[in-house]
Amino acid sequence: MSNLEDMFLNEEEDDEEAITAKSVLEMITDAWVNEKLCPEILPNKAELVEVMMEQIDQMEENVLQLQKTDLRSIIHRQELERIRYLIRSYLRARLEKIEFYSVWVFKNQSVLSPQELAYLKEYLSLSVAPLKNLCDRFPGPAGQLNPKQMEIAPDLEAHVFAKSRVDLPDTIIVHDGPREEEITVTKDSQRIVPYSCIRQYVRDDRIKLI
Amino acid sequence: MWGDKAIELIKELERSSELFPPFDDDKVRLILEECRVLNQFIEDAMSSTFDPETNNYLAGVKARTAALERNKRCLLAYQWNRLQTLKKMRWEFGSILPPEIKANMSETEVQWCTKYSKALANYMKNIGGRNGLNLMLDMQPPKDLYIEVRCLKEYGKLELDSGEVFNLSENSQHYMPRSQVENLIRLGVLEHINWS
């Protein structure tokens, strides 16, 4: 797949643009992989998605100018389909987490894009309604919905495969049950660690999940 | 025993072989009735005067409060899990759910479904540039640009974005762009023919 990407994106006439389009695609791919593997919802990459969507529109126009039977046209269109899948799948993965951990995400809403936040609010209010209906039928003080009981929090202690992009300046401390271990993280090193130990680094893109 | 009916309700939902079993309103009502009796006892106990010699209410009240909480928890879990199933089906089947599932939904659930669809539509309209982005497409990673499909139902003419017109009559086979027929495959109009 990466071969095709090279072929496709380097073929653009405007060289400078090709570089940005390519790096944006790379960033989105990373964001997608991270989002799929991460137990919690990560800071949103809405600007990237937006840029990529514009790119797609533009590339689509370029493709239309090619002959339909042209091999390049087929390859380009295939690539476009893949990028679209990537973006959709990425947004879907986020949506799934937003829905499942809705109350928890609502408390940590800084990671959401404005559209996602609007959706979350709508989703929360509509999903509380059926539960509230049920509670209303309860007699006495039990007939109240306890917001604490509704919250589902992601398991931040879940183990993840992590790979570092950079040499980290500080060592990280890995808690594993009673044991505690201090590790120095160098570029490209890989490890299985509980997510909570590297949470801040994943969130600011210094460590990626694999 | 208190709480028996509630756990039964949940077990039934889990064990049911149906994709989406009917909302068991009778049982829900029975559970609520049980709760009413429990609550009555608690209220009576609260209004009686406290006398350490004769008052043996305390243990009874505690047990009944616990039973009430448990019933409530079970009922909420029942409803919540049903909504999760509905949500999953909404993604699988699109906004129009099959009639046999619709028949099993409670009124609250029908309302919930409509609102959920609307919320999703709103969200998809607001992302991805001017035309929005339909997240219902591309549920599987794309393999081929074109796929071979067989038409299972009489559908009539279908015009593609490119302007080509296909006549989808029953049992006809076509070679079409995947992105444009995905929806029809999900609706059961077309069937993807997989040679491999």
UniProtKB/TrEMBL annotation, chain A:
| Presence of the UniProt keyword Signal in the record | no
The record's listing under SUPFAM superfamilies reads: GINS helical bundle-like, PriA/YqbF domain
Q: Which residues form the signal peptide?
A: none
Q: Where is each GINS subunit domain found?
A: 72-133
Which UniProt key words apply to this protein?
A: DNA replication, Nucleus
Domain annotation DNA replication complex GINS protein SLD5 C-terminal: ranges: 154-210
Per the annotation, which location comes first and is thus the protein's main one?
Answer: nucleus
Q: Superkingdom of this entry's organism? A: Eukaryota
CDD domains recorded = GINS_A_Sld5, GINS_B_Sld5
Where in or outside the cell it occurs: the entry states: Nucleus
Q: What does the similarity note say?
A: Belongs to the GINS4/SLD5 family.
Q: What does this protein do?
A: The GINS complex plays an essential role in the initiation of DNA replication.
* Entry protein name: DNA replication complex GINS protein SLD5
State the organism named in the record: Nesidiocoris tenuis
UniProtKB/TrEMBL annotation, chain B:
Subcellular localization: Nucleus
| Superkingdom of origin organism | Eukaryota
**Residue stretches making up the GINS subunit domain:** 37-128
Q: How does it assemble?
A: Component of the GINS complex.
Instruction: Give residue ranges for domain DNA replication complex GINS protein PSF1 C-terminal.
Output: 143-193
Function of the molecule: Required for correct functioning of the GINS complex, a complex that plays an essential role in the initiation of DNA replication, and progression of DNA replication forks. GINS complex seems to bind preferentially to single-stranded DNA.
Indicate the family of this protein. Answer: Belongs to the GINS1/PSF1 family.
Which keywords does UniProt give here?
DNA replication, Nucleus
Q: What is the lineage of its organism?
A: Eukaryota, Metazoa, Ecdysozoa, Arthropoda, Hexapoda
Q: Which protein is depicted?
A: DNA replication complex GINS protein PSF1
Which species is the source of this protein?
A: Nesidiocoris tenuis
Q: Which PANTHER family match?
A: DNA REPLICATION COMPLEX GINS PROTEIN PSF1, PARTNER OF SLD5
**Is Nucleus a UniProt keyword of this protein?**
yes
Instruction: Mention any Pfam family matching this sequence.
Output: PSF1_C
- Family matches, as InterPro entries: GINS_A (IPR021151), GINS_bundle-like_dom_sf (IPR036224), GINS_Psf1 (IPR005339), PSF1_C (IPR056783)
Q: Does the keyword Nucleus apply?
A: yes
